[in-house]
From TrEMBL:
Organism: Quillaja saponaria
Residue ranges annotated for the AAA+ ATPase domain, each copy included: 255-445
SUPFAM superfamilies on file: P-loop containing nucleoside triphosphate hydrolases
GO MF term (any one): ATP binding
Similarity comment text for this entry: Belongs to the AAA ATPase family. BCS1 subfamily.
PANTHER family: BCS1 AAA-TYPE ATPASE (PTHR23070)
Record's catalysed reaction(s): ATP + H2O = ADP + phosphate + H(+)
GO biological processes: response to stress
Names of required cofactors: Mg(2+)
Disordered, as annotated region: 518-549
Record-given protein name: AAA-ATPase
Length: 549
């Protein structure tokens, strides 16, 4: 067999080499050339270029899959810093189950109260391969259970939530695409999911953190028993607030709005707040001041509310009561409560909130509870004791966080204060510019009754029933709250019986009021001198009127 042409050429190139000396000359010439080439490369090429060339030459001959690729990991914690939730963590938490619920064998599932669909969640340590365009990434959920819950400045939320995290791993060459495309895609997907299944939430503070619960209050502006002009003024103010983002920016004001709702108990303050929530479709943060431990805790509570939310502080006139922290031990899920064992309003609220649907809440022998008998006396005693202690947070601190520099840490927020006694509020709270709109909810009058009659009995005017005009006349002469009128209308589904009972109730109320006024008038007339003497006796000696004989 004849050798190939290439082999012939290769052998012919060495045909002239006849001796060992000739071989040495070839080797010497080759070595000299390589030394000169190496010297030239070292002298004229920068180290970075030399390293790049050598790396590529090695990869051609010694490359193995994955040998030179570097894996990058991004850690996504539940909180970015003290008290500030990581929105990306919340997005990934909802994004992952939606992507893998039909692909993986091990998942956490559950049925949440008020939800119709089954909820999915990933388990700790589970990995999930995800694809975005032409790249692959790996998601891992890590959860470390800890019994520690130390409330310090650096860790006011305890350790559990801080140690829950997602880890996103990918090839280093995809770094830019992950940060610029993949992460925004997850956030946009999360926002679309939330908008599609928007459920209002009411948040309460438990253990220093906001805890959400679903809010399904049926109140709307159409159902509110209040003056139509005032109702329309509130709606117009809310609409104006929503569309004036650029206006607030132009005039240099934080994009927030404050409402002070005041009036006697039963005039519909809570119903109005619920109607505002449903109208705006904003989540609610119900701040119980009795849960606030210090100015730092107050700062975190206000700062961790989200944009497009409503911060509610009810009964702001009772703020002094919240300074007593002697009974802040929370009860751990008992099945039976005694009022005597509940130390503050937040514990009572937690007890009521954890009751299930289709249940009966029983409070026996309520007259035996000191709070229902000697409330005013206890408040005075608590204030006397508190005056001897150091102040943990004050009204000025609260106002600073809701109306000072901290109020600009967020946008499109609404703050609502409620009170039964506006006359007891500090002037700093009700000054112009503090609360933008003051809403006075008074007793039920003719216009409010028309709304209640329509809601409860389907009566839409005086032409539908002859007693309507009589009731409207009685309401103008008596002080009855919408809650009382509604309770009377609920006693019977028959319109004749229900309205007849309301007429009798209003007549009795009117007669009782006239009798009380008559008795008071006679007493004042006969005891005017005695009352004056008593009033003078309560004055300091320097301010008592001098008696001239």
């Amino acid at each position: 067999m004849r050798p190939s042409l290439s082999l012939q050429r290769f052998t012919s190139s060495f045909s002239n080499i006849q001796s060992a000396s000739s071989w040495f000359e070839v080797y010497a010439a080759f070595s000299t050339s390589m030394i000169l080439l190496r010297t030239a490369v070292n002298d004229f090429l920068p180290p970075a270029i030399r390293s790049f060339i050598i790396s590529n030459i090695k990869s051609l001959f010694f490359h193995r899959p994955g040998q030179f690729s570097q894996i990058i990991s991004l850690q996504i914690n539940g909180y970015w810093e003290v008290g500030q939730k990581n929105e990306l963590y919340e997005a990934v938490k909802d994004y992952m189950p939606a992507k893998i619920c039909h692909e993986y064998n091990t998942l956490r599932i559950g049925k949440l109260q008020g939800k119709e669909n089954i909820a999915f969640a990933v388990t700790s340590g589970q990995k999930f391969e995800d694809a975005f365009e032409d790249m692959k990434v790996t998601w891992t959920f890590n959860s470390v259970t800890s019994q520690e819950n130390v409330k310090t400045i650096g860790n006011i939320y305890g350790n559990n939530y801080e140690k829950n995290m997602f880890v996103l791993s990918f090839d280093e060459k995809h770094r830019d695409k992950v940060l610029e495309s993949s992460i925004p895609y997850v956030l946009n997907t999360y926002k679309a999911m939330k908008e599609g299944e928007k459920v209002l939430k009411i948040h309460t503070r438990t253990g220093g953190a906001w805890t959400p619960s679903e809010l399904r209050h049926p109140s709307t502006f159409e159902k509110l028993a209040m003056d139509p002009e005032l109702k329309q003024a509130i709606i117009d103010d809310l609409n104006r607030f929503l569309r004036r983002k650029e206006f607030y920016k132009r005039v240099g004001k934080a994009w927030k709005r404050g409402y002070l709702i005041y009036g006697p108990p039963g005039t519909g303050k809570s119903s109005l707040m619920a109607a505002m929530v449903n109208y705006l479709n904003f989540d609610v943060y119900d701040l119980q001041l009795s849960h606030v431990q210090s100015c730092l805790d107050l700062e975190i509570a206000v700062r961790t509310t989200t944009n497009r939310s409503i911060l509610v502080i009810e009964d702001i006139d009772c703020i002094e009561e919240t300074h007593d922290r002697s009974k802040l031990q929370l009860i751990s899920q008992p099945s039976y409560y005694k009022l005597s064992s509940i130390g503050c309003d937040s514990q009572l609220m937690s007890a009521v909130r954890t009751t299930s649907n289709r249940s009966i809440l029983v409070i026996e022998d309520i007259d035996c509870n000191e709070e229902t008998q000697k409330r005013s006396t206890q408040v005075e005693d608590q204030m006397l004791q508190f005056s001897k202690k150091s102040v943990k947070f004050t009204l000025s601190g609260l106002l600073n966080y809701i109306d000072g520099l901290w109020s600009s840490c967020g946008e499109e927020r609404i703050i609502i204060f409620t009170t039964n006694h506006i006359d007891k509020l500090d002037p700093a709270l009700i000054r112009p510019g503090r609360m933008d709109m003051h809403i006075n909810l008074s007793y039920c009058k003719a216009q409010g009754f028309k709304t209640l009659a329509s809601n409860y009995l389907g009566i839409h005017g005086s032409h539908d029933h002859p007693l309507v005009k009589e009731i409207e006349g009685l309401l103008e002469k008596t002080e009855v709250t919408p809650a009382v009128v509604a309770e009377e209308l609920m006693k019977n589904e028959n319109a004749d019986i229900s309205l007849g009972g309301l007429v009798n109730f209003l007549k009795r109320k009117k007669m009782a009021g006239e009798h009380d006024m008559k008795v008071v008038g006679e007493g004042q007339e006969g005891k005017g001198d005695d009352l004056q003497v008593k009033e003078d006796a309560n004055l300091p000696k320097s301010k008592r009127p001098k008696i001239v004989e």
